[in-house]
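so my prof wants the structure for this chain in the tokens format not the other one, which i didnt know existed until like an hour ago. anyway here's the sequence
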Amino acid sequence: MSAPFVSLHNHTEYSFLDGAIRIKDLVARAVEFHMPALAITDHGGLFGAIEFYDACMAAGIKPVIGFEAYVAPHSRLDRSTSKDEHSYNHLILLARNETGWKNLMRLSTIGYLEGFYYRPRIDMEVLRRHSAGIIATSACVAGAIPRALLDGNLERAKQLAQEYLVLFGEGNFYFELQNHGIDEEIVA
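here's what i got, hopefully its the right format
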């Protein structure tokens, strides 16, 4: 028997201008597909976390709380970018336990209060301080590792992967594979 599928990268109506599904509808689909667990990973924050938690618990599904972080390439305090540089990379962060939940709240808050530059950004400095209890994934094509791979920089991708593995610990960092029909997601 195969293991059940669990969707760990989902944007709800709380992912402003990006999420298309309401939490109650997302949870209903998870029930329909017999998912034992489901994650919320809205962009930059945890605004839907409580609503999501309550909906999952009511449906008998294990809620996995997280968000898709915007990670500044240098410092979250840096408000400048060159024309050849992105002002942030995506990184999925999921709470593994209560410590992780508390760290997610800290990271989201820091992103809004200290790192806001078009988006609520964090950086590697705060990730190092608040990585305990968190599971991370490489995110979509806007993640640092996928961007390095798309730029043909395999060494940079390996360096970033190693950095995340050390930062989050063994068994707490994973690569995401996605296929939404976007050419960049299909790398030969």
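also thought this was worth mentioning. Helices lie at 23-32, 49-59, 98-113, 124-129, 144-150, 154-168.
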